[in-house]
């Protein structure tokens, strides 16, 4: 399509001659775009926040012996022999875990593979006892996943020997503070004294109920030889399920579970949220399209006299059509620009609002895509809407105008 | 071939259910450099004939040659650009675009054909306005002008692309007699000075008095032709 400059000039004058209806429709588009920008940013922010909270301080992929799970699902069929040696799994332990760890740390896409020993225990204090989760870790690796350092409320972070970290939940219910020594009992009934070196807050009550010690100490304390799980952190969070699938293809005797599989309800909830916001977007676009189509149809009738004259003077059918496409595009574009500003303003107001009412639980995610996508869609919708009056303009016979005076 | 317009057996029918024949086997040759008038009673087919010459209507049968060129094979787009380049139109009603100033209206035919007018063309538009006596109207919008001024802007607009052929359908039909005389004088001058080929429709014999050739059309046929007497 070749555009002629006079088509722009005429489109522009037509729009300006019906200034109030032009302004109204631009505002209409702007409101539509603003709502979309706001909605998309809100949803995006909410979803990212939920996902962040879900996986922020927990592993992306967990590798565990199949016995630790009641249903043996998630066990791979295995194409390569696990770490080239027979795997010994006894009562929920991975015995040859170093081999797995080496393999995993050499796998591209995995940032950290941290061996863990998990167990249950009780903090004994006087006559009361408080159930806790005992976790043995190798610190540099585990810290990548759980961010103990970043989430430390009190104290220091180097557990070793009988020095441990505990979560705020176990600290609060037992009343223990940094520097306190307490008696920790395992499920077999034996126990030992430990000293609290630091207290962390990981944001979830389950995680804050942990007592964290070194891997070796936990093995000795819980009387195990192997480990309970290898927890993995990956580079691309959203590719964790694919990576898990690949690991399942490599291992045959082990259970591999990604965070997506662990959080099926959350993800399907997010997906239905996506669907409903897509529906809202669709209807907003539909109303933009209908609005523009009706306004331009009116303009096409109002201006048929002018179009007839232009055609008598040599404007061809395509040129007449383009005059309307340009009008639709311009209104869409102007509406999109105003809409972006409005949407950003709305987002700003929302953030100020949530902040003043007790701090925002999550932030809007304002990205270029979240802004440009609705703007582009609205502009495209406006141009498409202009096709109807454009066809009318193309089909107009100048004689109709010149004869019917 | 020095005929600017040559019509060969033009027939025109209107209507789908009730078919009406408006023009009957019109043969006509118009030489260059002349002021020709079609006269005749209302409904006789003058406008239809003029619009066929102006490529705004297609004859049901027959051939139209303009300046020696057979236009019957032209596409719709080619007809549009032929009208733009070679034909100037003046109608009974001025048909200026209300959204544009007088000067802009005059420039629109150039703009349609060749894009933004260069300084030279703008100067020509100014010159035409001056010559026609409407230079003070250049930045006014049509609704700010009198009927005579509007029609003169339309005349300037019809001339901007230096057309071969100027077609006027009752150009004075909407004007009082004083203004009407002034416009006729202007058109005669354009034919004389610019060697323009002008075909005008009127139903007023007095208006047609000062032209080179008068062709009378009655009931879709040429009834009388001053060149053939
Ligand atoms: N689009 C059309 N459909 C049907 N009939 C038409 C159409 N256009 C014109 N006519 C008829 O053709 C005949 C000739 O019309 P035309 O406009 O050429 O007459 P005219 O000589 O210019 O008349 P006037 O002096 O009133 O302008 C008229 O009877 C008119 O009603
Ligand atoms: Mg007529």
Structure description:
The complex is a heterodimer of chains A (405) and B (229). Chain A has helices spanning 5-17, 19-55, 97-105, 139-146, 168-174, 215-222, 240-250, 259-262, 264-302, 304-312, 317-356, 368-385, 387-395, 398-403; strands at residues 61-64, 89-90, 93-94, 110-125, 128-137, 152-155, 163-167, 181-186, 191-200, 210-214, 229-234, 255-258. By secondary structure, chain A is α+β, with helices and mostly antiparallel strands. Chain A folds into two domains: 5-54 and 266-403, no CATH class; 66-253, Barwin-like endoglucanases. In chain A, the strands form two sheets. A six-stranded mixed β-barrel of chain A has the order 4-5-10-7-9-8, surrounded by four helices. In chain A, strands 2-3 form a two-stranded antiparallel ribbon. In chain A, helix 2 runs antiparallel to helix 12 (368-385), helix 9 (264-302) crosses helix 11 and helix 9 packs parallel to helix 12 (368-385). The longest helix of chain A is centred in the last third of the chain and has 40 residues, at 317-356. The two termini of chain A are 33 Å apart. In chain B, 34% of the residues lie in helices and 27% in strands. Chain B has a six-stranded mixed sheet. In chain B, strands 2-1-4-5 form a four-stranded antiparallel sheet, with helices on one face. Chain B folds into two domains: 1-66 and 164-229, 3-Layer(aba) Sandwich (Rossmann fold), CATH 3.40.50; 96-162, no CATH class. In chain B, helix 3 packs across helix 4. The radius of gyration of chain B is 17 Å and the shape is globular. Chain B has helices spanning 46-53, 76-86, 102-114, 119-132, 147-159, 177-194, and strands spanning 3-14, 20-31, 35-39, 61-66, 69-70, 87-90, 165-169, 197-201, 213-218, 221-225. The chains are: A alpha+beta (405), B alpha/beta (229). The structure holds adenosine-5'-triphosphate (ATP) and magnesium ion. Magnesium ion (MG) is lined by residues 46-47, 169, 201 of chain B.
């Amino acid at each position: 399509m070749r555009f002629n400059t006079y088509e722009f000039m005429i489109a522009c004058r037509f729009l300006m001659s019906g200034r109030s209806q032009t302004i109204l429709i631009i505002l209409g588009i702007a409101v539509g775009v603003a709502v979309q920008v706001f909605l998309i940013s809100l949803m995006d922010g909410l979803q990212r926040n939920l996902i962040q909270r879900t996986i922020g301080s927990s592993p992306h992929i967990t590798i565990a012996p199949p016995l630790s799970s009641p249903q043996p699902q998630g066990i791979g069929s295995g194409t390569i022999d696990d770490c080239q040696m027979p795997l010994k799994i006894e009562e929920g332990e991975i015995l040859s875990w170093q081999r797995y760890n080496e393999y995993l740390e050499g796998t591209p896409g995995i940032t950290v593979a941290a061996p863990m020993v998990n167990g249950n225990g009780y903090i004994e204090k006087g006559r009361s006892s408080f159930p806790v989760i005992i976790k043995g870790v190798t610190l540099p690796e585990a810290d990548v996943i759980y961010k103990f350092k970043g989430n430390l409320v009190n104290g220091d972070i180097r557990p070793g020997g009988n020095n441990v970290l505990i979560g705020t939940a176990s600290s609060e219910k037992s009343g223990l503070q940094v520097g306190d020594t307490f008696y920790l009992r395992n499920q077999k009934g034996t126990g030992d004294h430990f000293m609290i070196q630091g207290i962390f807050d990981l944001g979830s009550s389950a995680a804050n109920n942990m007592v964290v010690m070194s891997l070796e100490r936990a093995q000795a304390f819980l009387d195990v030889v192997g480990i309970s799980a290898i927890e993995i952190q990956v580079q691309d969070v959203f590719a964790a399920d694919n990576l898990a699938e690949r690991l399942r293809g490599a291992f045959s005797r082990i259970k591999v579970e990604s965070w997506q599989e662990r959080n099926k309800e959350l993800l399907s909830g997010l997906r239905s949220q996506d669907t409903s916001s897509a529906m809202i977007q669709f209807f907003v676009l539909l109303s933009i399209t209908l609005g523009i189509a009706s306004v331009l149809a009116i303009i096409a009738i109002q201006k048929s006299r002018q179009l007839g004259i232009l055609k008598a003077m040599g404007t061809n059918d395509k040129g007449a059509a383009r005059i309307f496409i340009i009008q639709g595009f311009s209104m869409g574009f102007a509406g999109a620009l105003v809409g972006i500003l409005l949407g950003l303003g709305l987002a700003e107001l929302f953030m100020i609002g949530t902040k003043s009412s007790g701090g925002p639980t999550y932030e809007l995610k304002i990205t270029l895509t979240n802004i440009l996508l609705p703007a582009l869609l609205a502009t495209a919708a406006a141009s498409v809407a202009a096709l109807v009056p454009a066809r009318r303009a193309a089909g107009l016979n100048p004689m109709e105008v010149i004869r019917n005076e | 071939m020095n005929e600017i317009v040559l019509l060969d057996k033009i027939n025109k029918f209107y209507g789908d259910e009730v078919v009406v024949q408006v023009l009957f086997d019109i043969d006509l040759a118009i030489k260059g450099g002349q002021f020709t008038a079609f006269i005749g009673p209302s409904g006789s087919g003058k406008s239809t004939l003029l619009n066929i010459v102006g490529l705004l209507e297609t004859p049901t049968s027959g051939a139209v040659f303009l300046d020696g060129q057979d236009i019957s094979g032209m596409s719709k787009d080619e007809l549009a650009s032929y009208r733009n380049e070679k034909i100037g139109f003046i109608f009974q009603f001025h048909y200026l675009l209300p959204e544009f100033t007088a000067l802009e209206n005059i420039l629109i035919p150039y703009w349609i054909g060749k894009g933004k007018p260069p300084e030279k063309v703008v100067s020509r538009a100014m010159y035409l306005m001056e010559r026609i006596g409407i230079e003070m109207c250049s930045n006014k919008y049509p609704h700010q002008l009198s009927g005579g001024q509007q029609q003169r802007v339309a005349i300037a607009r019809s001339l901007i692309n230096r057309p071969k052929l100027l077609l006027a359908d009752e150009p004075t039909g909407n004007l009082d007699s004083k203004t009407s005389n002034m416009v006729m004088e202007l058109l005669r001058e354009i034919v004389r000075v610019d060697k323009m080929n002008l075909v005008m429709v009127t139903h007023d014999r007095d208006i047609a008095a000062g032209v080179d050739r008068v062709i009378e059309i009655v009931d879709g046929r040429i009834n009388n032709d001053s060149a053939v007497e």
